[in-house]
Write a structure and sequence with these properties.
- The complex is a heterodimer of chains A (481) and B (260).
- Chain A is an all-alpha fold.
- Chain A has helices at residues 2-19, 24-29, 32-54, 60-72, 87-100, 102-105, 121-143, 152-165, 193-215, 220-240, 267-274, 287-310, 313-323, 325-330, 335-361, 371-384, 389-418, 438-452, 464-467, and strands at 79-81, 174-177, 188-191, 477-479.
- In chain A, the strands form two sheets. Chain A has a two-stranded parallel ribbon. In chain A, strands 2-3 form a two-stranded parallel sheet.
- The longest helix of chain A has 30 residues, at 389-418.
- Chain B is α/β, with parallel strands linked by helices.
- Chain B has two domains: 4-81 and 172-259, 3-Layer(aba) Sandwich (Rossmann fold), CATH 3.40.50; 94-156, no CATH class.
- In chain B, 42% of the residues lie in helices and 24% in strands.
- In chain B, helix 3 crosses helix 5 (121-140), helix 3 (97-104) runs parallel beside helix 6 (156-169) and helix 5 crosses helix 6 (156-169).
- The chains are: A mainly alpha (481), B alpha/beta (260).
- Chains A and B meet through helix 12, helix 13, helix 14, helix 15 and helix 19 of A and helix 2, helix 3, helix 4 and helix 6 of B.
Chain lengths: 481, 260
């Protein structure tokens, strides 16, 4: 049915264009550059019109359009300088620059239709943390093809690791390590956040291995069920850990959670000498910027590891296991060990993300680690495109944006236009609480994506072209000095 | 005959009440080409799967190059030097031909997680050599221009060739080919028979073959073993097998004998 509909739409499209003298063959005959420019200009114009009539217009919209066109149209891939293929770095570098500079122009962006504002800085931090977790889960689900329904366990483990080593939870002890910017005189473990991130990652990876050893012998559905179980066990331990095994040892502080957890910072000494914040909270209203840049760096690290591993012996082994477990084993891949590595790697990044998030919100509460989080992270991976780094990033950012800010924005936009006293037509008479339907909306999005584009929004284009490089792809200009 | 490379003692596999392989004693001498024939359902592939660790034998023992491998996981068999292909092609469909071969090299490469992330000079060098070797293997198997193609996009014959290339990438001492000429046309079959011969002469490999095409079996094998209902009913040179009464009755049929 999907095919027929798509064929009909594209048929109608070409009929209309055919009247104007442009049929499919002529279109295919155009150079790729021309085709890309026409498409990009068309989309940008549509976007601008949408902002003009349904959003809130301002002149930065033109700048936005220019940036989009500049990124999409020119064939950067083919830029070669002195034999180095710098082309493939141009777009990533530009995107990175845009991302780093986001706090500075965030306030002057135009308002989008329906979604209204661009994400706030605090939302960007959340998006970064969840991008990291989604990329972590991508090692397990996207690369190795192991369905993990309990990823929240790693998130919880990371958060509590931050709680143990950067708060006053164990007030009987008194140990400080590394550069921290907390008030002197606090009891408990207070390690530098950077150390805590690493410790949380490693501890979570160890938990990943411990969970993995018994469970990874299972295949498919059985594995999914068992991971689901572990995803439920971890928050239960967190909830009941204030009296561990009846010994009276307070590990997690039960339902009260661990709070406050130290904010990140570089400590007083570095803060004094290098003018870096001793503690992010001292920055006041600019604290979110520091949190955002830090999470950006962590996400970059995760992307880097994902990309490197993807092209390695281990990455190939993961994908081989996803493709055909029996054949992979027969080709000499040790299944248990390789799968456990995938689990541990995924867990590591989940743990780091969890620890950072705990440090950001300054607390770890057991009821924030429920099954829904596992599902949401999985949806991010599936929606964006399993196994593709950029797809997963897009999926994570989009879903987490909707989760934190998008849905309330959509709600207020809808209510403002169609709700009680709406500016357009009044369709409903009670204020519609859109975020209330969050999971329903995510479910609908997932079902629609699975029907229309089961491979995800940005699927992994397996890199056939890369192997032919230099055959079809002559450099556009080769600068030799 | 030279040294024994692979040897089984009373190898047995039961699925519930069904005895798929019934106490088979079997040897593959070093440097030989041995064929395993028998009617459909005779237990040939089950036997193969035990020789590569995919199935664990119910009873019996497997020795390879002097070491007992019974009960070890499949990757150990591959690491020790048994490479295989599958009857129903099992390529990694969404990986390119080159990547398929690189996966085959897994057990011969050493780069670990940390090294892969750091991309240490050693890993870089190893990857470079592996890619060069993989290209060489693709060329050897007649897939020179196909390295960037996905497994699923290759023609049937090319998929078979890629499976062999992938098996060779494990640097085996013994290659197990499970019905390699199934679905090939006569011309391809002749070429393939020649290719199997070259595996021994050029690469110094020992080959164990499951095959239904009698021209291949009789043309290339030193020894032939016949299975029927999981039992070894005959063993010997191709000439002996062709004359063996039980084999003719169970499998070859009289027509096949007079034809060849």
């Amino acid at each position: 049915m999907r095919r027929r509909l798509a064929a009909r739409v594209s048929g109608a499209w070409w009929t209309v264009l055919g009247v104007a003298g442009l049929d499919r063959q002529r279109w295919q005959g155009f150079s790729p550059l021309l085709r890309r420019s026409v498409k990009a200009v068309l989309w940008v114009v549509i976007g601008l019109l949408l902002i003009k009539f349904f959003g809130v217009w301002n002149n930065t919209a033109f700048a936005l359009a220019a940036v989009v066109l500049l990124l999409v149209v020119p064939p950067y891939q083919r830029v070669v300088i002195r034999g180095f293929r710098v082309g493939k770095w141009i777009i990533p570098a530009a995107v990175l620059a845009i991302a780093v500079a986001y706090p500075y122009y965030n306030g002057s962006m135009p308002q989008l239709p329906i979604f209204t504002t661009f994400p706030m800085m605090s939302t960007m931090v959340g998006m970064g943390v969840f991008t990291m977790m989604a990329l972590g889960l991508n090692f397990v689900v996207g690369y190795a093809g192991l369905l993990d329904l309990g990823y929240v366990a790693f998130y919880a483990m990371g958060s509590y690791a931050a709680g143990w080593f950067a708060s006053s939870q164990f007030s009987a002890q008194n140990l400080r390590l590394g550069a921290i910017g907390v008030t002197p005189g606090l009891t408990g473990f207070h390690f530098s956040i950077w150390l805590v991130l690493i410790m949380a990652g490693v501890a979570t990876a160890v938990i990943g291995v411990l969970i993995g050893l018994p469970t990874l012998r299972l295949r498919g559905d059985y594995l999914a069920i068992v991971t689901l179980g572990f995803g439920e066990i971890m928050p239960q331990i967190a909830t009941n850990g204030d009296n561990l095994f009846g010994t009276g040892f307070n590990l997690t502080n039960g339902t009260g959670g661990i709070s406050p957890i130290d904010p990140p910072g570089f400590g007083n000494w570095i803060g004094h000498h290098l003018h870096l914040p001793a503690n992010y909270l001292t920055l006041g209203t600019n604290a979110d910027r520091a949190f955002y840049w830090t999470v950006l760096a962590l996400v970059l690290l995760t992307i880097f590891c994902s990309a490197r591993l993807r092209e390695s012996r281990l990455g190939r082994a993961w994908i081989a296991i996803r493709e055909d477990e029996t054949a992979a084993a027969a080709m000499g891949i040790p299944l248990m060990r390789t799968k456990t590595w995938a689990y541990a790697t995924g867990a590591f990044f989940g743990g780091v993300a969890g620890a950072y998030y705990a440090s950001y919100i300054g607390a770890a509460f057991p009821d924030s680690f429920n099954f829904n989080i596992s599902v949401i992270i999985l949806v991010m991976v599936i929606l964006g495109g399993m196994g593709n780094i950029w797809g997963v990033i897009f999926g994570a950012c989009f879903i987490e944006y909707l989760n934190l800010e998008g849905l309330p924005n959509v709600g207020s936009w809808l209510n403002g236009h169609f709700g009680p006293g709406g500016s357009d037509i009044q369709i409903w008479h009670k204020v519609l609480d859109v975020p209330l339907y969050e999971y329903g909306i995510f479910g609908v999005i997932l079902v629609v994506v699975m029907l229309v584009r089961p491979e995800g929004l940005i699927p992994s284009q397996r890199r056939a072209a890369e192997f032919h490089e230099g055959v079809h792809d002559e450099p556009l200009y080769d600068v030799t000095a | 005959m030279a040294d024994v490379l692979l040897q089984t003692f009373a190898l047995r596999k039961e699925f519930g009440g069904l005895v798929a392989v019934d106490d088979v004693d079997f040897t593959v001498p070093q440097g030989s080409i041995v064929s395993l024939i028998g009617p459909n359902g005779a237990g040939k592939t089950t036997f193969f799967n035990m020789l590569t660790g995919v199935y664990k034998p119910t009873a019996g023992r497997i020795f390879f190059a002097g070491d007992e491998l019974t009960g070890r996981p499949p990757h150990v068999y591959t690491h020790r030097g048994i490479g295989r292909t599958f009857q129903n092609i099992r390529l990694f469909q969404n990986m390119t031909a080159l990547e398929n071969v690189l996966v085959g090299m897994h057990t011969r490469l050493r780069g670990n997680l940390i090294e892969a992330i750091m991309r240490t000079p050693r890993v870089r060098q190893e990857e470079k050599e592996a890619r060069a070797r993989a290209r060489e293997l693709l060329e050897y198997s007649g897939l020179r221009r196909k390295e960037g193609e996905f497994g699923r996009n290759l023609s049937y014959g090319d998929q078979r060739r890629l499976e062999v290339a992938r098996a060779l990438a494990t640097q085996p001492k013994l290659v197990l080919l499970d019905e390699p000429t199934a679905g090939m046309n006569p011309q391809e079959t002749v070429e393939f028979t020649d290719f199997v011969g070259r595996l021994r002469s050029e690469r110094n490999l020992t080959v164990l073959l499951i095959e239904h095409d009698m021209r291949v079996v009789m043309g290339v094998s030193d020894r032939v073993t016949v299975l029927d209902y999981g039992e070894k009913i005959a063993e010997g040179t191709p000439q002996e097998i062709q004359k063996n009464e039980r084999v003719i009755e169970a499998y070859l049929g009289t027509a096949a004998v007079s034809a060849s």
